[in-house]
Amino acid sequence: MIGSRHIPALLAALCLWAGGAVAQSSGLIRLTDRDDLFGWEAVGRVDIGRAGFCTGVLIAPDQVLTAAHCVYDRAGQPVAAETIRFRAGLRDGEVIAEARVTGYATAPDYDPQGGTRVENIRNDAALLRLANPISSALAAPFAVHERPRDGERVSVVSYGRDRDKAPSWQRECNMLWRAEGIMGFDCNVIFGSSGAPVFARHGNRARILSLVSAGNWQGEDRRAYGMDLSTLLPMLKRDLHAATAGQATVNPGFKRVQVGEGKRASGARFAKP
C-alpha cells in the first residue's frame, strides 16, 4: 500500500483530468450477444430521468451499487429516487431485467459540491434500493471483495459515451496503487463509466473491488480512480435500511453523461477542476 506521503502527488495527478473525446480501445470487448453477457448480467445501466446515465451493479436482488455523484443534479441536490431506473444487462434495447428505484443512500462524508477532491473519491459510492427484486436466476449479484491486495489484476464492465447501448468489458487491467481508501487503475473508462464495478478474481467468480469514480485521460496514460468499498458498504447498507420507501438518505452533484452525447455530464469525472 502506498503511504500517506504519496497523497500530495496523487492530488497533483488528479488536477490533470481532461475532458476530450477518447477513442475506444481495442482492449474492450462489446458484450453484444446473450452468450457474451453470461456471468455479467448483474451489471447494468443506471438511467436518471430521460437524459443521463451511469453504470451500476447488483450486490443483492434489490440493491445496486453506483457512484454517489450520479444521484445529484448540477445544483448539488439529490435527484428524486423515482426518476432512477436500473436496467440489468442492457444491450441494444434489450434487458435481462429492470426495476425502478425507491430510495438510495450515499456515503456520509461525500460532498456533492466538493469537486474531485481525494476525500470525495474516497466516499463516492451510493446504494440504490429497487422497487422489485431482480431474480438471482436472471442476474446473480456480485459480492464485494473485502481484502484487496496490492497489484491486483482487475477487469471492468461499463457503459459509456459512444458505447452506451451495450456494456464493454476490459478483461484485464491493473491496480497501480492503493492508499488510504483510494485505488488507482490503468483501466479504460470514459464518460458514463461512473459507478462501473472494478472486479478482481476470487475463486471461481469475480468480486467487486471498487467502483469507478473518476479518471485521467492524457494520451495513452489511462487512469481510473476508485474507492475501497470494504468500510463504506456497511454504512451504506445501514443507512439504506433506515431510509423509508421513496426517500433518499443522502448528504446535501455531479452531472451524469447524456445518452448519446456525454459533453454535458461527468460520467466518470473527466472535467478540468
TrEMBL record:
<dbReference type="GO" id="GO:0006508">
    <property type="term" value="P:proteolysis"/>
</dbReference>
<dbReference type="InterPro" id="IPR018114">
    <property type="entry name" value="TRYPSIN_HIS"/>
</dbReference>
<keyword id="KW-0732">Signal</keyword>
<dbReference type="GO" id="GO:0004252">
    <property type="term" value="F:serine-type endopeptidase activity"/>
</dbReference>
<dbReference type="InterPro" id="IPR008256">
    <property type="entry name" value="Peptidase_S1B"/>
</dbReference>
<dbReference type="InterPro" id="IPR050966">
    <property type="entry name" value="Glutamyl_endopeptidase"/>
</dbReference>
<keyword id="KW-0378">Hydrolase</keyword>
<dbReference type="Pfam" id="PF13365">
    <property type="entry name" value="Trypsin_2"/>
</dbReference>
<comment type="similarity">
    <text>Belongs to the peptidase S1B family.</text>
</comment>
<feature type="domain" description="Peptidase S1">
    <location>
        <begin position="17"/>
        <end position="241"/>
    </location>
</feature>
<dbReference type="InterPro" id="IPR001254">
    <property type="entry name" value="Trypsin_dom"/>
</dbReference>
<protein>
    <recommendedName>
        <fullName>Serine protease</fullName>
        <ecNumber>3.4.21.-</ecNumber>
    </recommendedName>
</protein>
<feature type="signal peptide">
    <location>
        <begin position="1"/>
        <end position="23"/>
    </location>
</feature>
<dbReference type="InterPro" id="IPR009003">
    <property type="entry name" value="Peptidase_S1_PA"/>
</dbReference>
<dbReference type="InterPro" id="IPR043504">
    <property type="entry name" value="Peptidase_S1_PA_chymotrypsin"/>
</dbReference>
<keyword id="KW-0645">Protease</keyword>
<keyword id="KW-0720">Serine protease</keyword>
